[in-house]
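Final report, closing paragraph on structural work. Over the funding period we assembled a curated collection of sequence-structure pairs, and we close with a single example.
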Amino acid sequence: MSTRARTEQPSLTAEFQQRLTEMCFDLARTVATTDEELATLEAQQRSDFGEGAAAGVVGDLLTKLEGRERHELDEIDAAQRRLEAGVFGVCEACHRAISLLRLRAMPTARRCATCQAREEAAR
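Its predicted structure, as stored:
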């Protein structure tokens, strides 16, 4: 499979768009502090969320993120940009395809397991 083939398969693209959107909602739920925020969030999630992942109540909630959650949101955004650019699932280090098993476990992965292990060992 070529490095671009993964995002050229519409079913995989849709799968990962859905997973990344769900990850955004999970983060928003983490910072929702009132019943009203949670109710609005649930209503938006049930409706067609579409392209505006950072709009409305979800966007307001996500601006409250700090630290680890902010980093996680940045990684989700970066993965969504890679998906749109057609390079999702390509290792940023060796430029080979990241295994589908790894991407399903961690949709925000930037590196294949080998390159990630190499980077972690170097720290």
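The longest helix spans residues 10-31. The chain has six helices and no strands. We thank the funder for supporting this effort.
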